[in-house]
Design a protein that fits this description.
Elements: E1 3-5, E2 11-13, H1 15-25, H2 30-44, H3 49-94, H4 102-113, E3 123-128, E4 131-134, E5 154-167, E6 171-184
Antiparallel strand pairs: 1-2, 3-4, 3-5, 5-6
Helix pairs in contact: 3-4
Length: 186
């Protein structure tokens, strides 16, 4: 296709190209003027190519970036929860005979070790010497026997926390983070 540069600085197809295109399509008058302008813009060069590429890649980049941020936030919450459960189980194992409600002591320690997590979402469960307890208290833990905090027995602390994975309003999934630690009572 032959393109000509007019005296006024505009790019126009040659007369022969205009005539053959018009004859082939049966286009005349104002319709031809619009068609010739579109053809001239299409053949003019690279102007606007970067904008088109940006418009095509930007949505994909936004989905990727928001997915990385969302996953990073959930990973941070999981690490905080894991650390908090570790410190709560350690405190429960070390100070077993020093409190009347060891689960309450451990729950308070977990909550204070996880300042970025909401206390409303945390739920706790304990296994002390083989006996399961749930919630923030475990009144009535025997001093000896099954379910006791005698030296040499194990305590297991588990905490769960709800999370939500949002990726640029396209993907919204609820999830649950769970951390568990087992310690030997001192």
């Amino acid at each position: 296709m032959k393109i000509l540069l007019a005296a006024d600085g505009q790019v126009r197809p040659s007369a022969r190209v205009r005539q053959s295109a018009a004859a082939a399509r049966g286009v005349s008058g104002k319709k031809w003027l619009l068609a010739s302008r579109i053809l001239a813009i299409a053949c003019a060069g690279d102007e606007g190519g970067s904008l088109v590429e940006f418009a095509l890649t930007m949505p994909m980049m936004m989905v990727l970036i928001t997915g990385m941020f969302s996953f990073g936030i959930i990973l941070n919450q999981y690490l905080v929860l894991t650390h908090a459960v570790d410190t709560g189980a350690r405190l429960l194992a070390v100070s077993a005979q020093q409190t009347s409600d060891p689960c309450s002591t451990a729950s308070t320690q977990i909550l204070s070790s996880a300042p970025t997590l909401s206390s409303k979402g945390l739920s706790y469960s304990y296994v002390i010497g083989g006996a399961p307890y749930s919630g923030t208290t475990c009144n009535g833990v025997p001093a000896t026997g099954s379910g006791s905090l005698a030296s040499g027995t194990t305590v297991s602390v588990t905490a769960t926390y709800p999370c939500q994975l949002n990726v640029f309003a396209l993907w919204n999934k609820k999830c649950t983070l769970t951390a568990s630690t087992t310690e030997l009572v001192q």
